[in-house]
Hints:
Elements: H1 2-21, H2 25-43, H3 75-111, H4 113-128, H5 131-141, H6 146-173, H7 176-183, H8 188-196, H9 201-224, H10 236-245, H11 251-278
Helix pairs in contact: 2-3, 2-11, 3-4, 3-6, 3-9, 3-10, 3-11, 4-6, 5-6, 6-9, 7-8, 9-10, 9-11, 10-11
Amino acid sequence: MASVSAPLTRSTGSRVRRFVGRIPASGWVVIAIVLLCFIGPLVMPFGPNDLGVGGPFEAPSAAHWFGTDDLGRDLLVRVLAGGQISLTVGIGATALSLIVGLIWGTTAAAYGGWVDTVLMRTGDAVMAIPQILFALVCVAAFHPSVLSMTLVIGLLLAPTTARLVRSTAVSELTSDYVTAARATGAGRGRIISVEVLPNIVPPVLVQAATNLVEAIMLEATLSFVGLGIQPPDASWGTLLLQGYAKMYNSIWFMAFPAAAIIVTLVALTLLSERLGAMFDLKEVGE
Length: 286
């Protein structure tokens, strides 16, 4: 059994190590954004909610690189702190979607029959509802917070992940190495956890990058319509909303949060495509 499945697992591991050793430009951009957002506010001379560190609506200058907002708060610190919140929600929601999706998809693939039908039709029903509408209703039912948004967005993205995991696992379960594992008396749980899961890592990694893009977009959308992070804290979506309301006073107030969202999403999308190319995946979830 080990001699049949080990080469596949080692191949996946070697590809991941090779990717880490040759991180593309999009990957470095993502790493830089994460480091700036989580470390930047700690070393800045101003806090994100410090009032009056400058005049209202100051243009970018040596003292305030991104200018200031309507209350004289440093906009650079606000954007970095907002990114910290947006990325926290995005990463948390992505992790939750992967955990739920892996359990959901592998259970459907392993048991088949009516279990597979019930789980996949449930996923189809959830996916048929527009994500934005579903998220608006769910978040509105609870007090908007980092935790509630993470849970709602993560659960909304889980069915897509589950469908990908299920289709990939079903394909793996028909492979020769699984047949050999069954012949040696391996149980369903061992086959899934030891034989199948290591070999579905590539498409799951690509799906993780895709989920992170969708999670950040959903968080920004919810915050932009006022159902996200509440003042005085602010995510990128909250800052975009505040900047949009004051765009005639200062274009920078809206431009920098918008640029942060766009650069992050583009970098993550390119990273997802690079992962897909590395693992020879023509279409995730196909």
